[in-house]
Design a protein that fits this description.
Elements: E1 2-9, E2 13-25, E3 29-50, E4 53-75, E5 79-102, E6 105-128, E7 131-137
Antiparallel strand pairs: 1-2, 2-3, 3-4, 4-5, 5-6, 6-7
Amino acid sequence: MTEVNKSVGNDNAGASAGASAGTEVTNTSVSAGVEAGAEAHAGVENTDTIGDFELKQEAHAEAEVHAEATTEAGWDGRNAYVDAHAEVGASTEVGASNSVEYGGVTNTTEVHAGAEAKAYVGASGQVGKDGAEGHAGA
C-alpha cells in the first residue's frame, strides 16, 4: 500500500490531505483500493476586559471531504466472484460563542451548525458451480 499525507498550518488555521492506494494479488484473487481525503479548519479567539467586564468571543469553521473505491475478484475453487464499491462524502461545521463575565457570573451564548452528505454505490456477483447471483446498491 502506498500512502501520502500532507499538512499545513496550526491550531488556528490549517489544512491536511491524504491519499492511499494498494493492490493485493494471490493465487486465487486480486484486489485493489484507493482512498483520499482532505480537511480544512480555521478558528479565532478574542478576550477583552472593559472595566469589571470580561468579554470573550470565539468562532470556528471546519470542512472535510473523502472518497474511496475498492474492487476484488477471485476464484474460490467452485465460483468466480467480483465485488466493487465506491463512497464519497463531505461534512462541514461552523460555530461561534460569546461570553460575558461580571462579578463571578458568566453568561455564554453559542451557535453551531453542521451538515453532512454521503453517497454510496456497490455491486457484487458470483457465477460457477453453485449457480449465479448478483447484488447492487446505491
